[in-house]
Task: structure prediction
Amino acid sequence: MKNKRWISFLTLLMSSLFTISSALQVSAASENEQAPDEYDWIIGPASVSLDGKATLEVPESHSYLDKPNTQRSILNSDGKPNGNEIGSLTSNSEFGSWYVVFEYVKTGHIHDDDQNLSAEELLSSYIRGTEEDNRELDPEYRTYITGWEIEPAYDSTKHQLVYSLGFKNADQQAMVNYNVKLLTREGYITAILVTDTANFQQSRQAFEETVLNQLSINAGYTTRSTMLRLTKHPP
Result:
């Protein structure tokens, strides 16, 4: 694979090595409806705040947890929150079950300067990070990255960095960790979709329609040129 020149979003990629196993465990708990009354679920349709940074319209057949409930649910699922989580969304609609974690990282203003970095180098970094996490996890909670499903690409019109990693859980089930990073004035919000590989395309379409198209960056957090509403088609 040839080296590619990436926008200077190395900070975005490397500073948020998301603990895949944590999302996977919470996703499984949500699908199995483990003790849902332990958390303050917000059932759609509803309008919710992502820690004051953004607003999400939660559709029917979807359930939302705020920042403290999301971090507690990860801990209760034997996961390890990274401290950046600001909310999570679970889908139990007729179109399938999937799970999304929202994170916010304040990095300061990010410039669009070029840097040399290959997808192979990025993938190796993710694999090393996951291997380090696995050393602290029981075997049944370990995950193993299998490669890129979608290599990192930056959309300058939407101010979004998109990439997707394939991985397997301890039972060798093929899963996908799909990341969309939305630039803000002083950092970025990441929406992380976790679903099984077999239903990835269907879940991705539902994720884009019911999450990305329903998420608005709040005033004061938008970039200078980002539209307040991050939709596929300009209003």
Q: What stands out?
A: The chain is about 25% helix and 35% strand.
